[in-house]
Amino acid sequence: MTDDDHATPTEHVALADLEDRPHAQVFDGEPRTVRLALEAGEGVASHRHPDRRIVLHVLEGRLAVTLGDDEHVVERGELLQFDGRRSVAPEALEDSVAVIVLAPRVA
Questions:
Q1: Which residues of 43-71 are buried (b: 16+ CB within 10 A; e: fewer)?
Q2: How far apart, in whole angstroms, are the C-alpha atoms of residue 25 and residue 78?
Q3: What are the beta bridge partners of residue 55?
Q4: pLDDT by residue (tens digit) across 48-90?
Q5: Is the peptide bond before 22 cis (omega within 30 degrees of 0)?
Q6: What letter would DSSP give residue 10?
Q7: Gap between the Cα atoms of 91 and 39, Å rounded
Q8: Residue 28: enclosing H or E segment and its boundaries?
Q9: pTM for this structure?
């Protein structure tokens, strides 16, 4: 048996081709990967992902990301990593696109 016998298929996606808004699932399976596209002033209501560790990478624009009582401004090219047990509410300070990776929490 070779390593290729257990490999997952390679997937290649262009974010610009994803149509769902504000969230578009990038790939099937784990880790869950989502493209978030928000217009200036648009946001996502506070929510949690309790079984996940999350990495948010802003590709375009600027987001204000509220985590519990803390607010982080994340600009183009910056990344934010946080525990999905914290409540999160992103809001676009300008038209923005981000990729979010929601990795399963390892016990």
A1: ebeeeebeebbbbbbbeebbbebbbeeee
A2: 21
A3: 81, 101
A4: 999 999 999 999 999 999 999 999 999 999 999 999 999 999 9
A5: yes
A6: P
A7: 9
A8: none
A9: 0.89
